[in-house]
């Protein structure tokens, strides 16, 4: 009896133990692997050694302490002196391998600047600003200069930097740079391993990798002064942290300070766009279209060749696409019904020297007519549908105090005057007729404007009677009546900016959150006033308008003319309803590279942030994910 009891107890105990083992196996959590590897790859050894002299090989191998990868080596790895034949750059396990294809120059220091392209293979920790150098001669050059390159018009970060020991102006356009570098995502650059001497420094959008200014459309920058690299031995304070909040030790250490380190380059593109006519178009029988590659200052006048208009006003003019397209709306049906029309066009065209010269071309317009669609049969008493002349008025609801009412038609209209429109103002509860200015758009025959010195809070009604306005093709308008209000004064805010540091003619552009100008005011009596602003966030850009023409002008290398200086205000202006804001802006108080607010900077710096890991819960989470199948079973 006792033996049976023992056997049953033993079976029960073994069963419970097996169930416990099975349960623990089904819910086992994988180890979290400990803390993340947050350190970048570390240099171990190389062939040749760093800064080795008298090296004659063309292959460089650099070994790190872990597996690495090189991000976009053809773009991010800069080898100087510039290589005319593309080198082979690759990651091979823990090695960075570089094979030079060009013949090595005698007594020359070679620099391989990896910028921020090297990172470890797992956590992508970046080895920042890493460079490697060796020399084919008895010594290695060690001087360096640094600075910042930004776009001259909008202070966005820039591109390739290069220097010449040949100080002639022609060197930039005829021979490659002797040493190069690139900007980082903040526009900062450092040119390393320079020999003592005197240099000129440039920037270049070098898409062709010629390392010289060979195409007029390239973006460039040049420095007015000569560069003489120098250095001094000095000290600085280095801080060692116990953690992110606690300082361990502050030490004074010596270092080599290379100069100059404050070079400022402003990138620009010369105004060298050639002007020429593109293919003529006639997508509609009533419209002849001439397209150009750039905006025109003078509109071409077409001269008929294979037809004779009955009237000198045989077309209406309309410009489109920011002045690059010109539409001629034909008014004579005997003309537009012809399949082919030939006209003579006189316009300005760029010659081989990019000088605008008068050009006369014979242009042919051909229309492809579609087959006439068969109309559906209608009942005898069913009227023909009326296709009215399209008329759009941009005034509805509430408009701004400074707005002009625009009336746009779908087709050119003839004989339109202000008498076709009725503008009434609401006084108390009654509508009273008021006077207004009415004028056509000088560049677009479809547009007309209604203007009046509006006042805060006024209410208006605009009306047009039916069938009083006719297009050149016989369509007439439908009846129109629309009401609109002028916004009240307390719906706006006002901004006055005191300007310091602008010692010449200048203007300030108020910008929206997309870095687009919405207002422009000339600096007067040391400041600018922006009235009647809609509540919003605004930014400001100032242009030193040296020639006082009201626009930003680019530079010219041949004339040694720098682009006009642009300054961004680091402040954000928050304008609220019924508020008056006054600010002071010293345009030179903030360094150029820190002026533009990050909110409207398009090419934002790629901030290197440490990866966060939930060490406590990640094992549980991975276990939960694995056991989320039906009934806890895994297949």
Describe this structure in words.
With 635 residues, this protein is mainly β. Helices cover 7% and strands 39% of the residues. A 7-stranded mixed beta sheet has the order 12-11-14-15-18-10-13, with no helix packed on it. It has a 5-stranded mixed beta sheet with strand order 27-34-33-29-30, with no helix packed on it. The longest helix is centred in the N-terminal third of the chain and has 25 residues, at 2-26. Residues 21-30 and 618-635 have low confidence and may be disordered.
Question: Which terms summarize this structure?
Answer:
635 residues, mainly beta, seven-stranded mixed β-sheet, five-stranded mixed β-sheet, 5 helices, 7% helix, disordered C terminus
Short structural description:
By secondary structure, this protein is mainly beta.
What secondary-structure arrangement, pairings included, does this model have?
Layout: H1 2-26, E1 43-47, E2 59-64, E3 68-70, H2 73-76, E4 78-80, E5 88-92, E6 95-99, E7 109-115, E8 118-120, E9 130-135, E10 143-151, E11 160-164, H3 171-174, E12 179-182, E13 188-194, E14 200-204, E15 219-222, E16 230-241, E17 247-259, E18 263-269, E19 281-284, E20 287-291, E21 302-304, E22 315-320, E23 325-330, H4 333-336, E24 340-350, E25 356-366, E26 391-393, E27 397-399, E28 405-409, E29 422-427, E30 430-433, E31 437-440, E32 447-451, E33 459-464, E34 480-486, E35 493-500, E36 506-511, E37 517-522, E38 527-533, E39 536-544, E40 566-568, E41 573-575, E42 580-586, H5 618-626
Parallel strand pairs: 10-18, 27-34, 35-42
Antiparallel strand pairs: 1-2, 2-6, 3-8, 4-7, 5-6, 7-9, 10-13, 11-12, 11-14, 14-15, 15-18, 16-17, 19-20, 20-23, 21-24, 22-23, 24-25, 26-28, 28-32, 29-30, 29-33, 31-32, 33-34, 35-38, 36-37, 36-39, 39-40, 39-41
């Amino acid at each position: 009896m006792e033996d049976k009891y023992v056997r049953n107890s033993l079976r029960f105990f073994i069963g419970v133990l097996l169930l416990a083992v099975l349960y623990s196996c089904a819910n086992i959590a994988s180890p979290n692997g400990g803390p993340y590897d947050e350190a970048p790859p570390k240099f171990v050894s190389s062939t040749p050694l760093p800064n080795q002299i008298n090296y004659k090989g063309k292959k460089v191998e650099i070994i790190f302490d872990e597996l690495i990868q090189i991000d976009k080596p053809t773009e991010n790895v800069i080898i100087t002196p510039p290589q005319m034949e593309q080198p082979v750059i690759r990651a091979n396990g823990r090695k960075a391998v570089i094979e030079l294809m060009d013949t090595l120059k005698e007594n020359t220091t070679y620099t391989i600047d990896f910028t921020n392209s090297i990172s470890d293979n797992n956590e992508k920790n970046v080895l920042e600003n890493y460079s490697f150098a060796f020399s084919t001669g008895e010594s290695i050059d060690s001087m360096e200069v640094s600075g910042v390159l930004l776009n001259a018009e909008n202070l966005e970060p820039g591109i390739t930097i290069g220097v010449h020991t040949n100080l002639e102006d022609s060197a930039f356009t005829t021979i490659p740079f002797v040493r190069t570098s690139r900007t980082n995502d903040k526009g900062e650059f450092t040119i390393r391993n320079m020999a003592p001497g005197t240099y000129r420094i440039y920037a270049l959008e070098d898409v062709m990798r010629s390392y010289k200014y060979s195409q007029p459309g390239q973006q460039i920058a040049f420095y007015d002064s000569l560069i003489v690299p120098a250095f001094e031995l000095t000290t600085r304070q280095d801080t060692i942290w116990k953690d992110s909040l606690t300082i361990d030790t502050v030490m004074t250490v010596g270092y080599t300070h290379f100069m100059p380190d404050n070079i400022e380059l402003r990138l620009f593109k010369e105004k060298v766009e050639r002007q020429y006519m593109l293919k003529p178009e006639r997508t509609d029988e009533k419209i002849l279209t001439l397209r150009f590659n750039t905006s025109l200052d003078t509109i071409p006048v077409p001269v008929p060749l294979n037809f004779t208009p009955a009237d000198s006003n045989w077309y209406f003019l309309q410009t489109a696409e920011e002045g690059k397209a010109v539409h001629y709306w034909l008014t004579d049906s005997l003309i537009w019904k012809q399949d082919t029309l030939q006209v003579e066009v006189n316009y300005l065209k760029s010659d081989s020297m990019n000088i605008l010269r008068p050009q006369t071309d014979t242009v042919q317009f051909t229309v492809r007519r579609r087959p006439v669609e068969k109309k559906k049969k209608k009942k005898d008493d069913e009227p023909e549908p009326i296709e009215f002349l399209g008329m759009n008025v941009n005034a509805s609801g509430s408009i701004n105090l400074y707005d002009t009412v625009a009336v746009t038609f779908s087709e050119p209209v003839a004989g339109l005057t202000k008498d076709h429109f009725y503008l009434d103002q609401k006084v108390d509860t009654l509508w009273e007729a008021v006077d207004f200015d009415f004028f056509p758009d000088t560049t677009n025959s479809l547009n007309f404007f209604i203007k009046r010195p509006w006042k805060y809070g006024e209410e208006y009604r605009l009306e047009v009677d039916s069938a009083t306005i006719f297009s050149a093709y016989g369509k007439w308008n439908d009846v129109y009546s629309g009401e609109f209000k002028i916004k009240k004064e307390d719906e706006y805010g006002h901004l006055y900016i005191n300007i310091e540091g602008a010692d010449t003619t200048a203007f300030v552009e108020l910008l929206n959150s997309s870095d687009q100008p919405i207002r422009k005011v000339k600096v007067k009596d040391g400041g600018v006033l922006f009235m009647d602003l809609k509540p919003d966030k605004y930014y400001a850009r100032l242009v030193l308008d040296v020639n006082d023409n009201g626009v930003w002008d680019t530079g010219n290398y041949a004339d040694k003319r720098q682009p006009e200086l642009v300054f961004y205000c680091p402040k954000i202006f928050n304008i609220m309803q019924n508020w008056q804001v006054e600010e002071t802006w010293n345009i030179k108080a903030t360094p150029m590279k820190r002026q533009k607010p990050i909110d409207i900077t398009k090419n934002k710096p790629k901030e290197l942030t440490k990866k966060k890991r939930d060490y406590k819960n990640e094992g549980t989470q991975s276990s939960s994910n694995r056991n989320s199948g039906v009934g806890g079973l895994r297949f």
